[in-house]
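Database export, one record per block. Field names are fixed; values are copied verbatim from the stored entry.
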Amino acid sequence: MLILLVISLIGNVFFYSQYLHGTKEKRVEEGSRIIRAGWDTKLHFGGILDNVRLLLDSGDDMGKRIAAKQGIVDWTGYAEQVQAFVWGADGRNGREPLTFERRNALTFVSQVEASLKHIGTHGGPLTVKERRYLLSIEKLYSTLSEIAEGFTVDTINDSQAQLVLSGGDWVDAAYDLAAVMDREEQMLFEGVKDPLLTED
């Protein structure tokens, strides 16, 4: 009987240790995803901002405009990562769940990217409407880039990944990003269709 109890105890300890190991692996994986999403969020806002400024300064220089447009294309496709970073913060630090009145991060980035691809695809200087839109994006992305810089994790390892899951300043930064992206009444440039509603 004693032998059976010992064997049972050893088995329970083994399975519990396996459970803990699996739980830790999942936490490390989740935390690592948030860190990568945070890096990509910073890169996206900074990269788009630089090329919007280049586009604004291009004037009649088609070489500059083409370079700016290519730069914008290079930094598109980050919408899901920005969304992942924001959602990673949802409910952490004892915050209320995220809510959106107009748009979430995925919608915001997708609408801006679609609009920027549309602007400046013609000869001659940018139109007054195009410049007005670009200036609004420059202002917004300056704010977003500054907020995103608050995510200061610069490496991925097990301890950092688990530390991120425990919360911290990055959670507040993500909530601030969500608020800014949800703030404006309209983000699509005139005549541009919402890419998330456009059928293939």
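Remark 1: The mean pLDDT is 87.
Remark 2: The helical segments are 2-56, 62-74, 79-88, 105-118, 128-148, 158-165, 169-181.
End of record.
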